[in-house]
Predict the 3D structure of the following.
Amino acid sequence: MDLLAQRLDDLHTQAAALVRDAASERMLERATETELAQQLASIAAFARLAEALLVDAVGEVPRRSEQAARDERMTSHLGCRDAVELVQSLTRVGPQTAARLLRAAKAVRPAVSDTTGEALDAPFPSVRAAMVDGTIGVDGILAITDPLQATAPRVCARARREAADIVVAEARGEGPDAAPPACAALLKIHAQTWALALDQDGAEPRERAAERKRALVLGVASPDGVPVRGLLLPEVAAQLQTIFDAHLSPKVAFDDPTAACTADGGDALPPLPARDDRTRAQRQHDALAAALHVAASSGLLPTIGGAAPTLVVSVDADDLARGTGYAHAQGCDQPVSVAVARHIACGGVIQRVTMQGERIVAIGTEERVFNRHQRRAIALRDGGCIIPGCGTPAGWCEIHHVTEHAVGGPTHTDNGVLLCWYHHRFLDRIGWSIRMNRGVPEVLAPPWHDTRRTWRPVTTSPTRLRKRVLKT
């Protein structure tokens, strides 16, 4: 006899009617701020109760799939490989969410005695009680139990339960400081603090575990890109985050406020607005790309075959001239565009290899694009990425040939400008134009960025800015 089916059907019918009415009558839009805040809190409380029932239901799956004989498992009966796959299939969530539900269930569901069949105490009884009455949901359960579980077996179960009791009091708004009910993020901080206080061995055991699990794996290349997965050591992640922060911090400067006129002697130009439609994740990707470029060109990395680690990209000469076809990067199964090949070659080394069929008939000498002396001079002149509003410093920039090297552009300071990885990689696509005016770079913004469509002198160089300030 199904003890829940009718009641769940009734609840589903009521909830469905409520959602339809709220949408059709625009109830949330018509609410005052006070009413909306109350409604949001009530909806979240209802969701936490639903999560409590979901966690208990999910917790039954592994209990019924622990039999030694595979054919006797619930997962096998329903044609799934494991509990995560079964939960994912039945609840229509992703694998990460399914794994979180199973982890929460393991922390709060009581075990069942093998001999008597009675329910035993849950690993964290107070956390289970807070879940059942709707005080916390899955996020709150994991925020409290994950840090405390990580101290096992160095900290006894009783001490972990007592610490959880104190954190649950914070979740109910009954903590010693009389603070209002804490959200999941604050609960995690409380639980982490207690875990550190209880763990007398300090950070070493956790660090040893992290060292064993550290990994960085490049997945199989696909037309959409190459997936990355793994676990970074905390200090490595902190260093990477520092690199991200350095690139993403608001340090940009647009047009020079002290400039009295344009390069052509006209009226002063209005400042350009800040425009960057990249997501934070995309900006972090571009920051990592810039860091890899700096590391590879630093001369400090181990050599491969007696040479610095060099990304080798091959492209047919005819395809390069036409700008069509594909190029191939060594170490990647997916072809790349000719535009990518040009971007890489612009800041690297070009060597022409002539082939007839499969036979190499001629090997040209390496053509160094810009040497270190030229780079220093260009960095002094430009100061950083020349695109207004970017602000990436010179040390993180690549040098771009204004007239492409492939069509005869000289490797000269009068033909090279600093661009960050993002603006260099996507220069043609995002619509910025660059020209040299008697050795001084000027930029033309795309129409959506600058309706005046005026060539503007680059103003990021500290040297030129100081000169203009002194003149004024």
Remarks:
- Confidence is low (pLDDT under 50) at residues 256-263.
- The chain is about 45% helix and 10% strand.
- The radius of gyration is 31 Å.
- The longest strand covers residues 359-363.
